[in-house]
Amino acid sequence: MSRVALLVIHTGRRRSTDHARTVARDLIAAGFEVRVIAEEAVDLELPGVVPISGLAAAEGAEIVFALGGDGTFLRAAELARPARAPLLGINLGKVGFLAEAEIGDLDRAVRDVVDRAYTVDERLTLEVRAEIDGDEAIESWALNEVSVEKGQRAQMLELMVDVDGRPLSRYGCDGVVCATPTGSTAYAFSAGGPVVWPEVEALLLVPVSAHALFSKPLVTAPTSTFVITVDPYTTLAVMCCDGRRVYDLPPGTRVTVRRGGLPVRVVRLRPRPFTDRLVAKFGLPVDGWRGNPG
Description:
By secondary structure, this protein is α+β, with helices and mostly antiparallel strands. It contains 6 helices and 20 strands. The protein has helices spanning 14-29, 38-44, 70-83, 106-114, 187-190, 274-282, and strands at residues 3-9, 32-37, 50-52, 63-68, 87-91, 101-102, 119-123, 126-132, 136-142, 145-150, 157-163, 166-173, 175-179, 203-208, 218-220, 225-230, 237-241, 245-249, 254-259, 264-268. The strands form 4 sheets. It has a 6-stranded parallel β-sheet, sandwiched between helices. The chain has a 6-stranded antiparallel β-sheet with strand order 9-8-19-16-11-12, with no helix packed on it. Strands 15-14-13-10-17-18 form a 6-stranded antiparallel β-sheet, with no helix packed on it. Helix 1 (14-29) packs parallel to helix 4 (106-114). The longest helix has 16 residues, at 14-29. The termini are far apart. The mean pLDDT is 91.
């Protein structure tokens, strides 16, 4: 039986397509059927790949490669998650916090995949349901975060936040971010939230620019449920999932966020402490700003 790999590529950069061709050739030589998203196959210009479309692109795939930055990784996660296919990120972007390997590790990463020399972590996800006028519903999910934000720059958004069925606080704010540990280094971090190790099972709630006496970020149990109600007399709101799926929310909308039933399976090539990743990706001064006093 043929082994199957799906390549998701940031085709906007020539370097990305060049590296994708290398990966595809090596995998085909190792006996893989290599699938490529149909719209991206045109840019790849490589005989032997299989163009494929639709959300079932990763169905039956042994692994999904995301060749690009974090945006490419999140796009690939949309395909890998329903198929429960392991997802391997190769960073061809800037920070690439979600990626497992850098461009210099590309050849070794492909060899490890061919040899099945990797492990797989399961990353907690979020499921969200927005009810409009009590019946019309929007359903989506996120690996990093679900945010409810103001839709008009000049106006403050009024939100009521409940946690586990109990009222927490009413915020006049720019928005609220509900995040996973994986997403704690993304939007939630920029909004002042804590960094949470990905092995921790927890949910995060981070108000954004809240005009309130209590606007601290919260870390709750993974079983918690957040309900965010857009005040009936406030401005239009926008719900955004992983920065990719965006929905308009009229006043009065009720948004429910809880742990997702289906994780994203992420490939790990080498055991590496999360501390090392944090220092490397953020360029942290390990000796501190004062340097080494010794």
